[in-house]
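Researcher: Next sequence.
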Amino acid sequence: MAPSKTIDHAVSAAARPPLRLVRTSRRDTLRSAGPVPGPEPGDILDEAGEARFFLGCGIGKPHVEAAARAARTNGTTIEKELIAAGLIEPRLYYRWLAGELGLEHLDRIDPDEVVRLPFLDVLLRRDGPLRLSRRARQITVIAPEARQLEAQKAMFRARPGLRRDMAAASPAAIREAVWQAGAQDRVRRTTFALDQDQRDTSARRVMTAWQGFILALVLFAAMTGFVLWPFLVLTALHVVLTLFFSGGTLLRLTALAASVFRPIRTRPPAVPEGTRLPVYTVLIALRSEAAMAPALVSRIAALDWPKSLLDVKYVCEAEDEATISALLAQGLGPECEIVRTPSFGPRTKPKALQYALQGARGSLVAVYDAEDKPAPGQLREAWAAFDRADQRLACLQAPLAIANLSSNWISGLFALEYSGLFRVLVPFLARTGMPIPLGGTSNHFRRAALEEVGGWDPHNVTEDADLGMRLYAHGYRTGTLRSATVETAPVSRKVWVRQRTRWLKGWAQTWLVAMRRPLRTCGALGPGGFSVFQLMIAGMLVSALAHPLMFLFIGLTLAWLATSAAAVPTSHAVLMWIDFANISGSYLAFIALGWRGFTAHERARVRKRWLLLTPVYWLLMSLAGWRALRQLATDTYLWEKTPHHPEP
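Model: Next structure:
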């Protein structure tokens, strides 16, 4: 029977609806006037029976037809589609279902009564019965479904004693109880799982004993050499730093040249229709973000993805009542959930994400930040890319665009930096099959691959770079998207330096972790990947730290030329000119790469005189680099949070 005819048949069978959803100005109620016309007792409803059931509840034919079409497309049920569309209020609906079955309804489940079975967390990802221990007896809590209502009624009629040992609750109430009941065990397990299972890849230890020994040996040799042969040691150090500078600049110029022959397209390709979509989990880690809640919830709600297949988790610190209250005030839809992360271990974003990942119901996972405004079609573009590719494509990075690039010179140069990184350099690395240090937001993952590599490292404060390298080392690759996520850049020097300190400290952690076993890392990444890793991670840190030293060497050499009658050694003169080339080349590559990635609209908004402040921007980066080294030794897991403010 055709779907439309099936619905029409259901309408005629429910000409006198005995159940009606009554909406009043104060509350919604369900009233019963008798049994719903339907299948024989004990049967599980098919689509026609389910449609007839909800038509009998007083839901209009257009809504039921639309829900039936969506259920066929999404592989769900009419019930789930009606709840997702907001046509059924879950709390009211599950209370009524409990009444129909003669079961106690639990609006809230006491987590202390939950029986903590070994696989309790399975109930975070799928609906299922929950066992409670109450007054020396066990109770099974179920989430009833319309399709099974008549079958369950028949079961209770045949075995009325079962009602004593059962209760009903909504799936959301069951998940909330599971989150709370297993919180302490779960947070301990997720915080230390990577360190226990793959200790060599965890940043819990700053460095190993042999790394500490090598570092001490190098420092001793350098100090001794500096005392005995100062010019030779300084020259050798200078050469090493020059190689890092030159290598990083060459990589960026290569990406720039490649982009000339491959036009940058900002519009994503058309997404094919008709393929069944998977469940998509969206994780947003929040801390002290009450002011951002209204805008954030609105932006996430604008994502173009069926609500019945969306699993949105706002991950908050358990004690952050201001943010939690602000989110609750937004009237979150049934696809949304607030995950409270217990106060334990490092207070980092990756710890929160790793904790929430335990309840991710989607086969695909996206990560966003509080200030993000993702393109509505970004999930569909990511799904289409995953659908076309093989399983080795584990991650997709969306470009990040800066909304407030015209605020001041800091935000303008920040936007220039992001433009070059996410629109030119990262796509180049993806096309050439190189490892990519991910951005901290707008990452899209296959959940299976994410879990295989151990997920996020709770102890690494730049978890994105670390995760990108671990994915590559496990044989996975990262691609890029074209639809951008818009976010805001810091406009304060203090905030910018604190944020950049955290990034550079995390890159140092990532480098130290990878270099615990350098030969194994080289074998996992391959020679090309290992070289890119050194240039992108170590090179950025070394460049930031050494940038003022380049100016110092040039100044000393010029002073020597001006005041000394003796000729400057040829090696020093050559190095001075290389320093000139490195510094000017790095500035020009920075500007050209970012300008290449800018759209015409962005170029018009950035004041060109700000480009002259590029040296100041790099010197600020050096300040952040030295702060990062100090924090690495004294406060490794300190997360200097970037404050966010809603757009005016």
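Model: The chain has 22 helices and 16 strands. Confidence is low (pLDDT under 50) at residues 1-42.
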